[in-house]
Design a protein that fits this description.
This protein is of the alpha+beta class. It has helices at 6-24, 26-29, 71-74, 81-93, 152-156; strands at 38-39, 47-52, 55-60, 63-68, 95-98, 112-118, 125-132, 135-140, 143-149. Strands 1-5-9-8-7-6-2-3-4 form a 9-stranded antiparallel β-sheet.
Length: 158
């Protein structure tokens, strides 16, 4: 048996109690991941094509090309490559965060349906988007998320 003085045993008890308090409160020291924003497209993800409702924006070499099934929009020649590049850049930088206010049923019918086609993925990511009370929500990874950055207008209009 270890022989310690009374002063040494007091120190052992104090440090044991501090260790126990630390272990019990460890969860409060961690960051809450639900408050952190996460990107829709991961770092290094390459967007090949973007479908917003019936409009398609796709990579054509190093620029972007616009096509629409709507005769009114397809006749517009004023959609520049810079506007399309800015729209795609907004999608590359888009952030969402967790929320608990809106259920998945509230997104029906969505205001916009966006399909992201990424390099290396077999299927496109379908994102229904709906604005409720000046907040924009979308279905991401089977969870309703709050759009944090940029605005829905910057993601759906060019």
């Amino acid at each position: 048996m270890v022989r310690l003085s009374q002063k040494a045993w007091n120190n052992v008890i104090i440090f044991a109690m501090l260790a126990m308090i630390l272990m019990l409160n460890l969860s409060s020291f961690k960051q809450n991941d639900s408050d952190l924003s996460q990107p829709i497209i991961e770092e290094g993800g390459i967007l090949l094509s973007l479908q917003i409702d019936q409009d398609v924006i796709e990579r054509a070499g190093q620029t972007w090309r616009f096509s629409s099934s709507s005769p009114a929009l397809s006749s517009q020649a004023d959609v520049s490559a810079l506007q399309l590049a800015a729209l795609v850049d907004n999608w590359q930088r888009a952030l969402v965060k967790s929320q608990n206010d809106v259920a998945a049923e509230a997104l029906q019918p969505p205001d916009h349906v966006v399909v992201l086609w990424l390099a290396g993925e077999r299927n496109g990511r379908v994102l229904p988007i709906k604005t409720i009370n000046q907040q924009t929500y979308l279905m991401f990874n089977d969870e309703v998320m709050l759009l944090d950055f940029p605005t829905v207008e910057q993601l759906t209009q060019w």
